[in-house]
C-alpha cells in the first residue's frame, strides 16, 4: 500500500476524533478540488445584437444603451417581485421589440407640470418594430422561447407579418395547454395569435425609414453582396434575454427580423430550438446573435450547454470556446449565456455587441457595446 494512503487514513481518523464529522467533511471538500460556486441569485442578461460598431458612431450609441437599460429594468422588476424567469425574459425582449416606456413631461399655463408614463414604438433593434426587410420588401419576423426544466418546454414562430410582439406569441404557444405544437409559422401562426387575443397590426406598422434605406442600399450593391449583415450603428439581426429566477428556473427568449435583404421565406436560427435559443436548468440558458446559417449548422446555443454537461466547462469557458470555434469556420456573432448560479457570459467575435445584465442582489443595470 502506498505510504500516503496510510497517512491520509490517520489524518482522517484524527479529524473525526478531534474536529468531528462535520468539519472533516468540509475539509474533504476543500482538498478534493471540487468547485464551490457562488450563487448570485436571480439574474437577467440581454443582448441587442452583434455586429460592426466603429468609433465614429459612438455618439449615437446612448439611445441603444438607454434602451438596453430599460429592457433590463423591465425584466428586473419581475424578478425583484419574486416573479418567474419566463415572464422576465418576455418583458425584456418586448422592450427591444419596440415597446419602450418613457416619462413625458408637459408644461401647462402658470408653470404647472404634469408627468405621465406612456409607451412609444422604438425601432432601434432588429426585432419587432425595427425589423429589416426581405429582398422582396417585406418584414418577416420570428421568435422563440424556452424553459430549462427537464421536459424542455418551448414555443417558436416564424414568417410573421402582423404580430406586433413575436416573443409574446412564442410564449403563448409554450404555455397554451391546448396547443400540442412547439413551432407555428406564417398565416397559421398569425391566426392563432389573433384567436388568443394578441395585438395584431397592419404590416405597414413595421416600415421604418432607416430599415427601408438599408434595404434599398442593399439592392444597389452587386447581386452577390445584397445579403448583408447590419453595419454600424445598427446591430446584427437579433435580440435576446436569459434569466434565472429565485427557484433556479432558467428561461431564454430570442426575437428577430432576420437578415437584411434575406430571401422571402428564409427562416433563421432564432426560432430553431438549439440553434439560436436554448435553456437547461442543469447547465445554462443561451441566446445567440449573428450569421444564422452558421448558428443552424453548428447548433450553437445547445453546443454551449453540451460543453458544460460533457466537458465540465464553466458557462464562461463554454460560451467563449463555442464563439471562438464559430470564428474559425467563418461565422460571426455572439451569445449571452447564464447558468443556474447567475453567472453571466457574453462573448462575441465581432467588433461589438449590445449587451447587459442585472442582478436582484444589487439592482444595477450594467450595459456595454
Question: Summarize this, please?
Answer:
By secondary structure, the chain is an alpha+beta fold. The protein has helices at 3-19, 21-31, 61-80, 85-96, 166-175, 186-195, 209-220, 292-298, 300-311, 315-328, and strands at 43-51, 99-107, 113-121, 141-147, 154-160, 183-185, 239-244, 250-256, 277-279, 284-290, 333-339, 344-345, 352-359, 366-368. It has two domains: 1-34, no CATH class; 43-368, Glutamine Phosphoribosylpyrophosphate, subunit 1, domain 1 (4-Layer Sandwich), CATH 3.60.20.30.
Q: What is the molecular shape?
A: globular
Largest sheet: 8 strands, mixed
| CATH class identity of the largest domain | Alpha Beta
**What is the topology, as strand order, of the major beta sheet?**
6-5-4-8-7-1-13-14
CA radius of gyration is 23 Å
CATH superfamily of the largest domain: (Glycosyl)asparaginase
Name the average pLDDT: 86
In CATH terms, what is the fold-level topology of the largest domain?
A: Glutamine Phosphoribosylpyrophosphate, subunit 1, domain 1
Give helix and strand order, one letter per element, not per position: HHEHHEEEEHEHHEEEEHHHEEEE
Structural class: alpha+beta
Strand content: 15-25%
User: What CATH architecture of the largest domain would you give?
Assistant: 4-Layer Sandwich
Count of discrete structural domains:
2
Number of strands: 14
Distance between the termini: 59 Å
Unreliably modeled segments: 1-33, 108-112, 224-235
